[in-house]
Amino acid sequence: ATAGLGVAFNAKPIVQEAADTKVSVPYLDAILFVLGIRREDVKES
Questions:
Q1: What are phi and psi of 33, to 5 degrees?
Q2: What string of H, E and C letters represents the secondary structure of 1-45?
Q3: In the chain, where are the structural domains located?
Q4: Tens digits of per-residue pLDDT, 3-22?
Q5: pTM over 0.90
Q6: Which of 3, 21, 27, 32 could form a disulfide with 37 if both were Cys (CB 3.0 to 4.6 A apart)?
């Protein structure tokens, strides 16, 4: 299987250029929004 979306998370510029989108904040929860998942839907463990 192949990925449908490439996300560069705090990546170097060359990787950012190759990715479909980039997230340049220190929190992975920003990707939840892109995936359509609300913060309220995620339980802390």
A1: -60, -45
A2: CCCCCCEEECCCHHHHHHCCEEECCCCCHHHHHHHCCCHHHCCCC
A3: 7-41
A4: 687 888 889 999 989 988 88
A5: no
A6: 32
**Cα(26)–Cα(37) distance, integer angstroms:** 18
Closest CA to 5 of 27, 26, 25, 33: 33
The answer on pLDDT for 31 being more than 80 is yes
- Rg over alpha carbons for the chain, rounded to the nearest Å, is 12
What is the C-alpha to C-alpha distance for residues 40 and 22, in angstroms, rounded to an integer? Answer: 23
Contact criterion met (CB below 8 Å) for 15 and 7: no
CA distance 21 to 39: 20
